[in-house]
Amino acid sequence: xxxxxxxxxxxxxxxxxxxxxxxxxxxxxxxDSRANYEKIExxxxxxxxxPKEVANLDEALMRISKQAILHISEIYEFSKIIEYFxxxxxxxxxxxxxxxxxxxxxxxxxxxxxxYFDENGEFKESIDERLISINEAYKNKxxxxxxxxxRLIYTKSISPYLVDTQIHYVNSNEALLVRGGFNHALKGxxxxxxxxxxxxxxxxxxxxLKSEQSDLLDKKExxxxxxxxxxxxIFNKNLPFLKFINSAFDYVDSLIARVSFAKxxxxxxxxxxxxxxxxxxxxxxxxxKNPKRVSxxxxxxxxxxxxxxxxxxxMLLKSIxxxxxxxxxxxxxxxxxxxxSIGSFxxxxxxxxxxxxxxxxxxxxAGRMLGFAKVLSKKQILIGxxxxxxxxxxxxxxxxxxxxxxxxxxxxxxxxxxxxxKRLAMLLAKNSEVELIAALYDEIxxxxxxxxxxxxxxxxxxxxxxxxxxxxxxxxxxxxxAYGDDKENLNEMISKAIxxxxxxxLKLKSTEEKELRLDELLxxxxxxxxxxxxxxxxxxxxxxxxxxxxxxxxxxxxxxxDIKDKQRSLNSANSIAKxxxxxxxxxxxxxxxxxxxxxxxxxxxxxxxxxxxxxxxDSNGVSFRVPISLLKLTNQPxxxxxSVNISLSSPKSASVMIDLHGLRSDEAIYRLDKFISDALIxxxxxxxxxxxxxxxxxxxxxxxxxxxxxxxxxxxDGTPSEGGFGSKVVKL
Length: 732
Hints:
A hairpin with a 2-residue loop joins strand 16 (614-619) and strand 17 (622-627). The protein is 47% helix and 16% strand. The protein has a six-stranded mixed β-sheet, with helices on both faces. A five-stranded antiparallel β-sheet has the order 17-16-15-14-18. A four-stranded antiparallel β-sheet has the order 1-2-4-3. By secondary structure, the chain is α+β, with helices and mostly antiparallel strands. Mean pLDDT is 82; it is low at 637-649. Its EC number is 3.1.-.-, 3.6.4.-. This is Endonuclease MutS2. Belongs to the DNA mismatch repair MutS family. MutS2 subfamily. GO terms for molecular function: endonuclease activity.
C-alpha cells in the first residue's frame, strides 16, 4: 500500500493524515461504506476534541486473557479509551452516530477506573490515604536533601574544595563539584568526573536520604501493584468488552481523524459508488503546491493520454488514480464533490517507474511485461501505465500493446495510459471503450498549457520543446529533415485537428450557453404571458363585479315608488359607474430607437431593429421579436456626460459579522458581496463570516469567492471561540 501511495506522489499526504490518528492503523475502515460516509458527515457537523495518543493494546489484551497483571501505565491506556467514549457519548450527534454510540454500554466497574488517573496519567493520591502519606514523606526527604546540601556548601571546612556553589544533577542524584583532597573535609562517594578533572560527590548524608526516598517509592509501587492486580482481575472478567472497545476506538479514531484532516485542508469526501466511471470536477492532486485543477469524464475502459512532453500527462494519470484510491478508502481530497462521481475498484496497480536497475537484473520492457502478466487475470482493477511503449521498439510495442489491451478490456479492467506513440493511439481509437485525451500546447508562446482536450490524439511537440530549452535552430531543422516530411506533415495535421477541435468546442460551448439563455428567455416569456393572462382575467372579473353593482343599483332605483328615492338611487348608480377605473388604452405607441435599453416583463435587452409594431431586442447574445406595446424603457445612459458625482454614505446597519447558515450558495454569495461592500464603506478592516460546516458546498463557494475578491487581503478559519472551521475571519 505504501509503495503504491509513493508511486502516486501521495506519501506526504499519507504522512500528514497519519498525524491525526491516535495510534497507527490500516487505511481500510471496516463496515458498510455508505454508513461510514454518513457518520463522517455527522461528525463534520461538530467541532470535536481529538483523542489522546493511545498505545497498541493487543499484547496487553493477550496477557489479560492469561490472567496476567498489567502495569499501571497500561491500565491508563485503557482508561484513555473509556474516557474518550464517555466524551463522545456526551456530544449532540445526529441519528447515525448517536445510534452507534448508544449501543455501547460501558460496565460501571470499568468506567470507575477512569477516576483513578489525573490528566497527566498519574495515579491520583486521593484514591488511597497511604499514597498521600508516602508523597508527603517523599517531599519532606527532598526538602531535607536540599537543606543538607546548602549547609554543606556554606561549611567553612568544605568551601575551599568547592569548584562552585551549585547543586549538580548526575544520573538523577544531587551532587557537589569539588577539587581533589576533599575527602579530609567531606564524606561521600564519587559518582562522576568532570571534563576538567574535578569530582562529582554524592555526600553520605544525601545518600542516606536518597535511600530513604527509594524505600518510599518502593512502598508506593507496592500499593500501585495492589491496584493493578485488582484492576487486572476486573479486566479479565470484562475481556470481551475490552476487546470490543479497543477495536471500536480504532474505528472511531479513523472517522474522526479523516474529518479533522479534511477540515485542516478544506478537503471534501466522495463516497465511491457501484459504477466504474471516474468523473472528476476541479480535482487538485495534494502533492502540487499551486495546482491547475483537473476535470475528467472517464466512462470507458481505457483512457489514452497523448500529447506534449512535460504537459502534465503523468500527473493527470496520477490524479485519476489518486482520486479513485482516496474515494475507496474514504479519504478527503480537494475536489468539487457536488459534480464528481467515482466508481469502486477492488484493487489498484501502477506501472509507472522504470523497473530496470542494478539490483533486480531485469530490462525495462521485461519489467513492463512482468507487470502486465500479474494483472491479466484480475478483475475490478484500476491500472495506471505511464509511457506504455517504454523500453522497446515503438512499432513492435504498438502492435503488441494494441492486442494486449483489447484482451484486457474483455475483463473487468479499467486503465489509464500515457503514451507518445500515435500509431498505438490510432489502433486503439477505433474501439468505443477507448477514450482519447490530449495534453495541449500553446504554439504562440511555445510552452505546454497543462490543459487537456478530450476526443483527439495529441502531438508530442518534441522539436518545439527542444528549441524552447536552447537546442540550436540548425540542429532542430536537421532533426526535422531526418524525421521525414510525411511524418512531419502528419504532426501538422494533428496540430491543425487539435486547433480545429478547440475552436469547435469553444463555439459549441458558446452555442450551448446561448441555448440555455434562450430556454431561460422562453420560460420567462411564458411566465410573463401567464402573469399577463392572470392579471387580465382578474381585471375583467373586477370590472364585471363593479358594473354589476352599478346596474343592480340602477334596477333597484327603477322599482322605487318615491321620485326622490329613485333619483338618489340613480345618482348612486351613476357614481359607482364613474368610479370604475377602465383599462388605459395607449393611443400612441412607445417611441423607440435602435440602441435603447428596454424591458419586457423581467427580460432586459437592447433594441437592435424596429418595424411598425415590433422590435428585435438582444438579451445576452439572444435575439427575439417582441411587440412594441409590451416594452418599457429602462434607465438610459447619459449622452456625452461631462461629469459624474458619486457619494457614498456609511450603511446604517453595518456589522462586523454575517451569518450565512442554511443559505443556498448563490444567495449566500450575493449577501456576502453586499456585506463586504458595506464593511468597506464603514471602514472595517476585519470581519467575521459564519457559514457552518454542513456538506462543505457553502464553505467551498465562500472560500472561492474570497480568493477572487479584490478587496480581500487574507482570510483564515476561525478559532474555536470564533466558530472554528465553520467560520472565516477576513482581513479587508
